[in-house]
Design goal:
Layout: E1 4-8, H1 11-14, E2 23-27, H2 35-41, E3 47-53, H3 57-72, H4 75-79, E4 83-89, H5 99-119, H6 132-145
Parallel strand pairs: 3-4
Antiparallel strand pairs: 1-2
Helix pairs in contact: 3-5
Length: about 150
């Protein structure tokens, strides 16, 4: 299991005159063994698409929330204000959970992580930034979905 890389030119870029800038996409699977690869590519990221399996969500909810929390609190993501899109895959399946359900469950799990990690002294937290950023981000997401 490894990440996939590709570069391509957007159709809108092809129509422009002058220098055409390709988009570089890196697909890093959510397996724990590949987390170091994510740390390697995040500082260069202009955006993150975090994919959640809507059909098999409950069995992977804690792991997904933990991975999302780690991604959202990385210094490189916070400092550069990297846009994060949470994408629910397999929503066309009959047994898939709704995006609203997934959003609420992820928020609950992330809040659990925040509370437990806030209890740890700041001296013990490594490579994490102010968790207030995460709170503002969640409020922003809530405001846009209402």
């Amino acid at each position: 299991m490894e990440e996939n890389n590709d570069k391509f030119v957007l159709n809108s870029e092809k129509e422009r005159k002058g220098k055409v800038k390709p988009v570089h996409i890196v697909d890093v699977p959510g397996h724990a063994r590949l987390k170091p690869k994510l740390d390697e590519v995040l500082p260069k990221a202009a955006g993150v698409v975090f994919v959640v399996d809507a059909q098999d969500f409950l069995s992977s909810m804690q792991a997904a929330a933990d991975y999302l929390y780690d991604t959202l609190t990385k210094a490189s993501v916070v400092k550069k204000k990297v846009h994060v899109l949470i994408f629910c895959n397999k929503t066309d399946k009959v047994t898939a959970h709704s995006k609203e359900f997934i959003k609420k469950q992820l928020e609950k799990e992330i809040n659990k992580f925040r509370e437990s990690r806030n209890a740890i002294s700041s001296a013990e937290i490594s490579d994490e930034v102010n968790l207030g950023y995460l709170e503002r981000l969640l409020k922003s997401v809530n405001a846009r979905t209402r």
